[in-house]
Amino acid sequence: MPRERRVVIVESLLTPTQFRETVCEALLEVLNVPSVLFIPSHLAATFPFNTEYALVVDVGYVETLAVPLKHEFASAFAHSLVIPPVLQIAESVTMLSCWELSSVGSRRLEDRVRELLKVHGRVDSGDGVRELKEDDWKIIEDSNVVEDICVRFVFCCPFERGQAIQANGAEHGLPPVKSVKVPLGAEFLIIPGFVREAACEVFFERSSEDPSIGQMIHTLVERCPLDLRKLMFESILLTGGPTLIPGFLGRLKEEIADIAKTSASKMKQCESIRFYRFPNQTTELYLGWLGGSMFGALQDAVRLRSVSREAWLEERILPDWTDYVQHGIPCGKPELDR
């Protein structure tokens, strides 16, 4: 029953305050749940790795958001409450002064696949090979063929090959990649090897207005304090579907190293780039949910940082995660003995 369960919500770091307050009203005033806790998705993604520092890069469908996290102890609150060791994983905060945002994401990848197919895609009708027609595109969109291509057939090529593709397109002069065929009604859609390897360049095309993922990470670390830069490069946590594309990690590492060589700072810390990964890489698709469920299992931690129904009805204040860590319990009365 809702009235018997505390609610833990894993939210985007950029969730509007009005939306959060509306959710609180619905849960606390209509459904009468005991309490509500909002956890930033970037922070929740670090819980399964039990790390105090991380640079979390969430490559989503519409955008990519990168945020560094560091361990933060409550000052005055720490003197009045002894925090059990099991709760120490919850003492990290997002460094909002250093976050980076880009419109690069899965949607951009799908758009790039469509652009490449319009130029290079062909249809095998059985009697010969022809170019794509308008009727073919209707089948492609209705059958989600573009999404299928992004999941099954694209890959990130090495740095040198990627640079050649960006500079010369299909005329890069390198050994070709094998083409593949997928069903298209009663015919087959031919996906040239160039489409498979060139589509993912959308993640690594550098721009001053809309940075690539490598540029985002380098710029973000550059803005971090000096003592945290090496830690951040050694603690990169990637989440989101595109990060599972074959070759993504290796190419991203090469991109960051190359950007560092040409930047004014020439950060040597980027020589020790490391990624947090599980052996079963599909967990990167739901790291936020996994971290939220782990935190929800810690009853004391949930009670400590939740907004209770009584406190909400009395004060109607909804603090964010950083308030909890730095100032203790700013909303309502604490539920743990001090």
UniProtKB/TrEMBL annotation:
Family note: Belongs to the actin family.
What's the name of the protein?
Actin
Task: Fetch the InterPro entries from UniProt.
Answer: Actin, ATPase_NBD
Q: Which SMART domains match?
A: ACTIN
Give one Pfam hit by family name.
Actin
CDD domains in alphabetical order: ASKHA_NBD_Arp10
Superkingdom of origin organism = Eukaryota
Organism per entry: Teladorsagia circumcincta (Brown stomach worm)
